[in-house]
């Protein structure tokens, strides 16, 4: 093994220089030493200061310790208030039929607002009406005769409806974040739509909606498809990507049935899955929506579809009148619409379920919240059968026992008390004939009206989802029940104490 050379051999010094150096005065040596210490001190200080925002990464490689300096992390930008999505930044594309326009435009007039933007896409022209200023602008869909369509059970109008998002994009409107698709028989709650879409980054690819209530419909089409009648939202950059390839995509799927499954097929080719939001409602059901709406998921109600196939949501009135009444609570506190609260009247042993802005139901006896949050089957499935296995969610049967049937109180009026900062809604008992109950317990039939108090909370959905609590309040007013609904207090549990 080779001997290591001496330091003196590597760095030869002139002997005379060494002799001269040893003759330096001691005070000069002290000065040089002091200067050296100061230099080292400032060098170390500067190095530490410079590395405050650096990540020092140490690794061992081949037995040697190696040090690398990573760049400082880039802080996430804090969203400014102006970055929150507004109604103006959402553009609607509404699929409509000229044959049904005179009837179904009345649904749209109930939820459309002047500051909103969108287009009703028709298959052919319709007459100009005196109410056009209350509606979105109307346009005729482009020619789709070049596209193949060979589904024996469907209609080729599905192709023109498929292209609505792309055609709306090509209008080149400014400041658009989202395109929302819906049908002319869909009722939207615009403020809740804004609340839902504000959760997502509109600069990314998003395809947002929900599936069908029908298990078989989802099997036949897809659980991963957004149903167009219930509405779905596509972010602006995704809409641009879709528009570039959609016509080619449509040609690859001539055998599909409708427009929403074609959209889904194109989304699959783009690699974008469905982001599910339970507030979009296709409502592939028939009959009475009471069971569904009174046990709405803990999520903002965004849309109600198939208005012509289900009964009016309020009894003893037509569909337009019923939706007009629904606009009363929407205008007061849209965030809370249809949100279910469950509580108990301890003195009477009653279970009370409140669907805010819609109904109050009183049951004899004590039912768990787990049971009450399941929709009662007041409706039939899409194939008009009372088969509970046909639904894509849990349901509970409508009781046959006369003593366990709920007493239903529908919203009659509501207002806002500015002094108390709370809404006051009145619910009136729906009169139906029932055989007498033989149970020896308090009879809810003596309650004719229910008053519900609630403080509006526009930021309700900025927090983690949680069901509100309700409390039965004491009252001396005969034939009346009073209920307070609001955020659950500390350690408040929905239980009969």
From TrEMBL:
Any Pfam family matching the protein: DUF604
PANTHER family hit by this protein: FRINGE-RELATED (PTHR10811)
Keywords linked to the UniProt accession: Membrane, Transmembrane, Transmembrane helix
Bilayer-crossing regions: 27-46
Protein name: Beta-1,3-glucosyltransferase-like
InterPro entries: DUF604
Transmembrane keyword on record: yes
A single MF term (Gene Ontology): acetylglucosaminyltransferase activity
């Amino acid at each position: 093994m080779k001997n290591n050379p001496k330091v003196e051999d590597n760095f030869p010094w002139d002997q005379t220089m060494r002799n001269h150096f040893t003759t330096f005065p001691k005070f000069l040596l002290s000065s040089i030493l002091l200067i050296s210490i100061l230099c080292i001190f400032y060098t170390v200080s500067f190095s530490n200061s410079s590395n405050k925002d650096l990540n020092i990464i140490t690794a061992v490689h081949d037995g040697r310790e190696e040090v690398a300096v990573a760049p400082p992390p880039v802080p996430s930008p804090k969203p400014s208030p102006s970055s929150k999505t507004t109604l103006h930044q959402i553009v609607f594309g509404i699929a409509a039929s000229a044959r049904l326009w005179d009837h179904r435009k009345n649904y749209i007039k109930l939820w459309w607002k002047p500051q909103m933007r969108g287009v009703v896409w028709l298959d052919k022209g319709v007459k100009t009406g005196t109410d056009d200023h209350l509606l979105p602008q109307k346009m005729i869909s482009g020619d789709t005769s070049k596209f193949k369509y060979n589904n024996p059970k469907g209609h080729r109008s599905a192709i023109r409806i498929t292209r609505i998002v792309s055609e709306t994009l090509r209008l080149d409107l400014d400041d658009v974040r989202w395109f929302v698709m819906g049908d002319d028989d869909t009722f939207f709650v615009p403020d809740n739509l804004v609340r839902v879409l504000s959760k997502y980054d509109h600069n990314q690819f998003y395809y947002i909606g929900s599936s069908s209530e029908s298990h078989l419909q989802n099997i036949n089409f897809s659980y991963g498809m957004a149903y167009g009648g219930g509405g779905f939202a596509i972010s602006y950059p995704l809409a641009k990507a879709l528009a570039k390839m959609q016509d080619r995509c449509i040609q690859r799927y001539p055998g599909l049935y409708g427009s929403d499954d074609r959209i889904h097929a194109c989304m699959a080719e783009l690699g974008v899955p469905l982001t599910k939001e339970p507030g979009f409602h296709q409502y592939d059901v028939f009959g009475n929506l009471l069971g569904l709406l009174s046990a709405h998921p803990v999520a903002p109600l965004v849309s109600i579809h198939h208005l012509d196939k289900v009964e009016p949501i309020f009894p003893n009135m037509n569909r337009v009148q019923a939706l007009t009444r629904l606009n009363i609570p929407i205008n007061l506190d849209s965030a809370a619409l249809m949100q279910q609260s469950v509580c108990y009247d301890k003195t009477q042993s009653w279970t009370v379920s409140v669907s805010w802005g819609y109904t109050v139901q009183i049951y004899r006896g004590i039912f768990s919240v787990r049971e009450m949050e399941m929709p009662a089957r007041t409706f039939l499935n899409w194939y008009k059968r009372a088969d509970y296995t046909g639904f894509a969610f849990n349901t509970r049967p409508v009781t046959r026992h006369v003593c366990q049937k709920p007493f239903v109180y529908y919203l009659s009026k509501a207002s806002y008390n500015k002094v108390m900062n709370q809404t006051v809604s009145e619910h009136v008992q729906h009169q139906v004939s029932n055989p007498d109950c033989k149970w020896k317990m308090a009879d809810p039939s003596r309650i004719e009206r229910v008053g519900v108090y609630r403080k509006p909370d526009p930021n309700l959905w900025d927090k983690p989802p949680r069901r509100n609590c309700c409390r039965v309040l004491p009252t001396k007013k005969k034939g009346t029940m009073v209920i307070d609904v609001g955020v659950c207090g500390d350690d408040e549990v929905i239980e009969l104490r």
